[in-house]
Write a structure and sequence with these properties.
The protein contains 11 helices and 17 strands. By secondary structure, it is α/β, with parallel strands linked by helices. The chain folds into 3 domains: 167 residues, P-loop containing nucleotide triphosphate hydrolases (Rossmann fold); 178 residues, 3-Layer(aba) Sandwich (Rossmann fold); 79 residues, K homology (KH) domain (GMP Synthetase, Chain A, domain 3). The strands form 4 sheets. It has a 6-stranded mixed β-sheet with strand order 2-3-1-6-7-8, with helices on both faces. Strand 12, helix 7 and strand 13 form a beta-alpha-beta unit. The protein starts with 9 loop residues before the first strand and ends in a 16-residue tail after the last strand.
């Protein structure tokens, strides 16, 4: 069923590197969404978040620092090819400016007015949008006086770190926001939330760009280009309906011992938080490099966080059939114990298999979201016990009486029995496998919780209490 939602006004934060843009972004939304560091180049992709502003919802966009020369340290050599990350950052900022209704140009009060500030101001002045000049790190409001020379109106002194000047900034922003069109916000929920996970440089951003059909994410041969988890909405329709699928591109995951940079460590934590918000996770494995211990840890983490799991082997255009057969056998062996995950072959760069992978990921997310009636759950429980009764507990019969669903994504089923502490781990795994088999829940982590049912003999003397 199609629906229309209110267009959210977009407020973009721009400025030269290391003026506190991400700190202000976090302060305004009231959450530590953007990674903050004391060196330039921490923010690369633009980061978007819904911002509850007074009685309206805005889209707030954090961008990377602009204005660095292309020959800066952001330019890195990969073999014979120069990779200018700064140029990619500038493209992301341009994309944010294209959709922005209001731009907050951030400057550094402690550094004073710089020639780079003047260059950026001149560029922004030519844009057809509302523009506010914000002087950050201005614990002393007089620091803002130097910035009148930019010709952008009254400078607004703030300290994002110390929460100073925020009320005045909000008042001025309220005055320049476009008028509310009055349309009803239909509050559409995504059909599925999909996280794309994997080791650095496995092709995660390339895959999302292939799904979107445009260069939304920064792509570079340099491992670690993506640091923040970035949500992107993708229109989607199939026989079951239409709506949006929310894609989360996560930072590449390395082993913890290899994370020497605090920025990359924070990126790893934020990626784990993204898994918690996802209904399904697509693990990208670099087909050229094969399966690694870190890939296995990521699969375990997705399972732990309650994501339905798919494994996509990327860069299969680099593999011949013999190499693929060896990799598939290795995957099958190493993924034993996971919830029936079947690898999918794709080439994100060439677009091979990416549409099929998206359909399978949405289907997995829907399986994870599924709700069951009490009747069908108890028919499953009765049939399973009839075929394989639970092992006894020190000679006492263990009876599983009835069950009910507690929640979904992942499905949590509470099973009431007479001796919950007597449940054997092997039988628990058997029940999980049978549940997935019966309800076609491949790739879904099922949670079975065992609770004691009412015991009519509880509290009576042990001598009069038969083995129950």
């Amino acid at each position: 069923m199609s629906a229309r939602s209110r267009r959210l006004p977009v407020v973009a934060i721009v400025g030269r590197p290391n003026v506190g843009k991400s700190t202000l972004f976090n302060r305004l939304i009231g959450d530590r969404r953007a990674i903050v560091g004391d060196r330039p180049g921490v923010t690369i992709d633009r980061l978007e978040a819904a911002w509850q502003f007074n009685e309206r919802t805005l889209t707030l966009v954090d961008t990377g620092g602009i204005g660095l020369p292309s020959a800066s340290s952001m330019q890195q050599r990969q073999g014979e090819k120069d990779v200018n990350l700064q140029a990619a950052i500038e493209q992301q900022v341009e994309a944010a400016l294209e959709v922005a209704d209001v731009v907050l140009m951030i400057t550094d009060g402690t550094a004073g007015l710089t020639p780079l500030d003047a260059t950026i101001a001149d560029k922004l002045r030519r844009q057809k949008m509302s523009l506010l000049l914000v002087v950050n790190k201005a614990e002393n409001p007089d620091m803002a006086n130097d910035f009148y020379g930019l010709g952008l109106g009254e400078p607004l002194p703030v300290s994002a770190l110390h929460n100073q000047g925020m009320r005045r900034l909000r008042e001025v922003l309220e005055a320049v926001l476009p008028a509310d069109d009055g349309a009803e916000d239909d509050g559409i929920e995504p059909l599925a939330n999909l996280a794309v996970i994997g080791r650095p440089n496995a092709g995660k951003s390339t895959l999302i760009n292939a799904w979107l059909g445009r260069q939304r994410m920064v792509v570079s041969p340099t491992a670690g280009t993506t640091r923040d988890a970035v949500d992107v909405d993708l229109p989607y329709s199939d026989k079951q309906g239409e709506g949006i699928v929310r894609l989360v591109d996560t930072a590449g995951q390395r082993r913890h011992a290899r994370i020497s940079d605090v920025i990359e460590f924070v990126a790893r934590v934020k990626a784990q938080q993204a898994f918690s918000r996802a209904d399904a996770a697509v693990l990208l494995v670099d087909g050229h490099l094969g399966i690694s211990d870190q890939d296995m840890r990521l699969m375990g983490l997705a399972h732990e966080k309650g994501c339905a799991l798919l494994v996509a082997v990327n860069k299969v255009d680099l593999l011949d059939e013999a190499a693929w057969k060896r990799l598939a056998e290795r995957l099958d062996f190493r993924m034993r114990g996971l919830p029936d995950v079947t690898p999918v072959r794709i080439s994100a760069k060439n677009g091979d298999g990416v549409r099929s992978l998206l359909r399978q990921a949405v289907a997995a997310a829907r399986r994870n979201q599924r709700t069951f009636t009490t009747g069908e759950l108890n028919r499953w429980l009765e049939d399973t016990q009839r075929r394989q009764p639970a092992p006894s507990d020190d000679g006492a019969v263990v009876r599983l009486k009835y069950c009910t669903q507690v929640s979904s994504s992942p499905p949590v089923i509470r099973v009431f029995c007479n001796r919950p502490k007597g449940m054997r781990t092997a039988y628990l795994r058997f029940l999980e496998r049978e549940f997935r088999r019966c309800f076609n829940m491949s790739g879904v982590p099922v949670r079975l919780l065992f609770a004691a049912s009412d015991n009519p003999y509880a509290g009576k003397p042990r001598g009069n209490n038969p083995r129950y």
